[in-house]
Batch of 3 targets.
Target 1
Amino acid sequence: MELVSAPSLSLEPERADAGGPRAPAAPPAPGRPTRRAERLAALAVALLASAVYAQTLTYGFAGDDIGIIRDRPLFHDLGRWREILGASWWSHALYRPVTAISLAANWVAAAGDPRAFHLVNVALHALAALVVYRLARELVPFGAAVAAGLVFAVHPVHVEAVVNLVGRAEVLSTIFVLLAVLLYRADGRLAEAGDWRSARRAAATLGTLAAAVLALGAKESAFALPALLLVSDWADARARARRFEWALARHGLLWIACVVVAAGWLALRARIVGDLTGLEVAPG
């Protein structure tokens, strides 16, 4: 899947003469990577992210995996999806229905084989590294973006999230939060171009909100998303020597909608676990 746009080409290439063949397309502008370079960079990020955790494919259930996945019948039957969506992660502590559904689907698809769970975790980590690279491409030069993706792929801070199967909550939340930021940025560009009612604008707007819901349903850390969206607008304003208010005004209603979504999710979470923080201390 191509993550970045192709270099722009002239719609009417010059001809050698009135009836002659078309001249070859111009090469990419100096300093701009070729499509091949972009693809190779993305491939390197994904392969490195997968390679560093390849050995985990032989691991079994351990730690919290045992109580939450192996020994919890609720997560062994997708037919009970309504119960899963309404159940807390631990007894009256934490609420992560998106991650819970993914674990249940994993169990059903692989008959409870822990190797399949580890395979999915590694694949999700590779996807997260690719999304990091994609977002970095919008913020920093190509070389720095590649470095960001590669560092994210191998950084030891991710070990617990990838190796422990229940750590999937962090990986999924990261993916959806970053997708929300990317879609929010796309929405801002469309608004700046005067696109207010097209299908593309609707997709960017609704996609941002959908990604926000999925991120919140994966792990509570996604409550930081509204702040990250403001940071994105600040970065846009700074890059263009404009005021922050200009960047936010392009899609201020969407930002407010994201705040409302977060507040609504907090209320739902409180209803599921008993109060804003949960009635019990979660073991992990």
Note: Residues 61 and 70 are 7 Å apart (CA to CA).
Target 2
Amino acid sequence: MSATTTLAPLPAAHRVAIAPVFGAYAERILRATGIRRGLCLDAGCGGGYLGMALAAITELRFVFLEQSPSLLSLVDRNLKTHQLGDRSQTQLSSLSSMPLERESVDLVISRGSAPFWQDLPGVFREFRRVLRPGGQGCLWASSASRPAWGCGSRAPEALARHLWEAGFRCFEISQDEVGAWTRFTRT
């Protein structure tokens, strides 16, 4: 993948096939970060729906990273269906030890996977390692998983501590009617 490659957004016909809720999350990420080009890591991507929705409104290239082989197979099928193969790759990996180069990623996104991360401090250290200076991350947990974010190592105070200890000095943690949002920037 070349950092200078310009890619067209996903055609409008494909946008309808991706659940509308993911489109709203993608738009929120785009408004919050302004990142339209570069490399995006969809961390703990599940079926890859958030990344595909973001692909529909940006020129980003993607790495869909997932530790479940069956979910990664689903991502591969979805990428083929949505004709995103030339803008994406899949990686089978744990988030606490990602096979990505240092300072290679412009944007990290994740929807709903954070409550299941075993090593939250390690994941945030990895995000800082792979993000370029000025790169950003947007993590989202649904209202249904809010209890997991509100206790133990995922309480807002603990998340803030983990981000700080990983080296992030610019971050925001908030909750609204749809869930908990964590946004961070590598300085």
Note: DSSP finds seven helices and seven strands in the chain.
Target 3
Amino acid sequence: QNTSTDTNAVHQFTGPGTYYVCLTVCNSIGCDTMCRALEIKTVGTAHLQQAGVSVSPNPASDFLQVDFPNFKGGYNLLLINTLGQVVLNIPLLEEHTEVYVGQLQPGGYFAQLFSDGQKQTLGKLMIVR
């Protein structure tokens, strides 16, 4: 059983399945609990691959490997949080780039490739601890 007193608690499920999840909130008047069964169908993927770019592992904890076999320069990898904020903007300087993501909060992010004012979404990336 996992519990948290964090304001924005995050939990990483270990794999697909149905999980029974409860949320309890308390204030000066008392507490209230709501429980639901959640069906988790997938937990990340081995890697993101689109536009000739591969980002792995997914989920990631500390580092990402970005492989861009047809690299021609002038590209950045953007990681965007669920609020639409760019939280990481890394220039891709060669075919294989290692990116440190250990400073990011656990959760879901969108990976985008950016060049010459154009963005292409590569997919969803999970950061876990």
Note: The chain is about 0% helix and 55% strand.
